[in-house]
Specification:
There is one protein chain. Strand 14 and strand 15 form a beta hairpin. This protein has a six-stranded mixed β-sheet with strand order 5-6-7-2-13-12. The protein folds into two domains: 2-189, Chloramphenicol acetyltransferase-like domain (Chloramphenicol Acetyltransferase); 199-395 and 418-482, Chloramphenicol Acetyltransferase. It is globular and about 65 Å long. The protein has helices at residues 6-13, 41-51, 82-85, 97-108, 151-160, 184-221, 253-260, 268-286, 330-351, 355-362, 365-378, 380-383, 452-482, and strands at residues 2-3, 22-30, 60-63, 73-76, 86-90, 119-125, 138-145, 244-252, 296-302, 316-322, 389-395, 402-403, 406-414, 423-432, 435-445. With 483 residues, the chain is α+β, with helices and mostly antiparallel strands. It is 39% helix and 21% strand.
Length: 483
């Protein structure tokens, strides 16, 4: 038995009606690279069956402490049924990109059952009319609850089901599957001991709080960072419906690198934030809803150490970055976003990268759950704006991957929505056929963003405007120096 961390449990407590807290992704494969040019559903089942022992996520489920007196535990599922978790479906004809996004959004909007291991895989056929993709490709849609893993550990999880060559590797024989029945008495006893430890943990937090406060005050006085106090309210703030939309756009990594290199110190992440900012400017402006103040995004950051990377679960900090949607010029916005990102990083370092993780470990789960549900029921969650959207960076494998011999040719990621935040962006980097690319995908509340294809076009236009402005400006500077 392994107890969930405070942050893992937080994602369970945050799961309200219409707000499932799982992450996921859609990967598309070219089966022409597989032996005989075909991948059967049975092959995928057999491959997964041979590898479920490589990650505890596959076969463990939740055991809840009576009366919610402590955080839940992960226990081995004695009734694990692989074929329940892996489903085989197909798109209706003609099987185009929009249909794939609609099906993905509908599947992603449904919560995972809590009495079974909290993941599902859908093998999707019928992708017969995807522009730019080879004929006969298929997709794999994965859902895993956020309490089981975050984006960083999700990348490791995906590596388990893939190979580096078209030949499916032999991972060896699985060890014996020993099931440990959860003991209610043991869980209650642990909860009792945890309750006695809480005052000491709170005291330790208070000891850290003093130096933290001094660092924050000093950093603000010396203008290493600034607080983002006044955040505008947009259509993406409010009560979240049960319905979702999903879309994505792909950008060439070398072009993004060229844009980055036009301004010293700028990162790829700065470029992607600038593209998101431009897309939001275009979209909200078309509705007559663009605020004068800059929108603010929350950016999750991985705070686990090298020794903690194989542990699964969540170890995520947050930093808030102003997107500078108040700046129309793309190059000026990129420079401003870079400065805002530096400010946000300085603030996060002053606060302490693990502050959020430590805080959730100290806070009793039943109190946190009650607070979240009360805030949602009374409307307090919609009254305050913490950030307008989320943009998270998930690095993919820097090499070509295969599943059952089929080459992965594309991948987009799916995120959860949070109370009062109805738009979630994921920046996912990957390599297909030795070419690097970055997919910018988003998950949104359908009531808040009923036209996802239009917003995706806004992101594409934002990228093109930044590319043209940045690279033409670089060309002008080169020409000026040559004179």
């Amino acid at each position: 038995m392994q107890q969930l961390s405070g942050q893992d449990a937080m994602f369970l407590h945050a799961e309200l009606d219409g707000l499932p807290q799982h992450i996921g992704g859609v990967t598309i494969y070219d089966q022409s690279t597989a032996p005989n040019g075909k991948v059967r559903f049975k092959q995928i089942l057999d491959m997964l069956r041979s590898r479920v022992h490589l990650s505890p996520i596959f076969r463990r489920k939740l055991a809840f402490v009576p009366y919610n007196l402590g955080r839940p535990y992960w226990v081995k599922d004695p009734d694990f049924d692989l074929e329940y978790h892996v489903r085989h479906i197909a798109l209706p004809k003609p099987g185009d990109w929009r249909q794939l996004c609609i099906m993905t959004a509908r599947i992603h909007s449904q919560p995972l059952r809590r009495d079974k291991p909290m993941w599902e895989i859908y093998v999707i056929e019928g992708l017969n009319n995807l522009a730019g993709y080879p004929p006969g490709c298929f997709a794999l849609l994965m859902k895993v609850h956020h309490c089981a893993m975050d984006g960083a550990t999700g990348t490791q999880f995906m590596n388990i089901v893939h190979d580096l060559t078209p030949e499916t590797r032999d991972v060896g024989e699985a060890p014996p599957w020993i099931v440990e029945r959860p003991s209610m008495a043991r869980m209650l006893g642990s909860a009792y001991l945890d309750a006695w430890r809480k005052p000491g943990q709170v005291l330790d937090m208070l000891k850290v709080a003093g130096p933290t406060f001094m660092r924050l005050r000093k950093g603000k006085q010396e203008k290493h960072f600034h607080n983002l106090e006044d955040k505008p309210k947009t259509r993406f703030q409010g009560r979240i419906s049960r319905h979702r939309v999903v879309e994505a756009r792909k950008f060439d990594f070398e072009v993004l690198r060229a844009i980055k290199n036009t301004q010293p110190g700028t990162t790829i992440n700065d470029v992607m934030l600038t593209i998101v900012a431009g897309g939001l400017r275009e979209y909200l402006g078309s509705k007559g809803e663009l605020p004068e103040q800059s929108l603010v995004t929350g950016c999750p950051i991985d705070v686990r150490s090298a020794q903690e990377r194989a542990a699964g679960g969540n170890m995520v900090g947050f930093m808030n970055v102003a997107l500078r949607t108040d700046i129309a010029d793309p190059c000026e916005r990129l420079a401003a976003v870079h400065e805002e990102a530096l400010s946000a990083k300085a603030y996060a370092e002053a606060l302490g990268p693990r502050f959020a993780v430590d805080l959730t470990d100290v806070m009793p789960g039943n109190v946190l759950s009650l607070a979240i549900r009360t805030a949602s029921a009374t409307g307090l969650a919609e009254a305050s704006v913490v950030f307008n959207t989320i943009v998270t960076n998930v690095p993919g494998a820097p090499f070509q991957l295969y599943m059952c011999g089929a080459a992965m040719i594309d991948s987009i990621s799916l995120g959860p929505l949070l109370p009062n935040v109805g738009l979630f962006h994921i920046v996912y980097s990957s390599v297909q056929d030795k070419k690097g690319s970055i997919n910018l995908s988003f998950t949104a509340c359908r009531d808040m963003l009923p036209d996802p294809a239009f917003y995706a076009d806004c992101l594409q236009e934002s990228f093109e405007a930044l590319r043209d402005a940045a690279l033409s400006e670089k060309g002008k500077r080169k020409k000026s120096r040559s004179k």
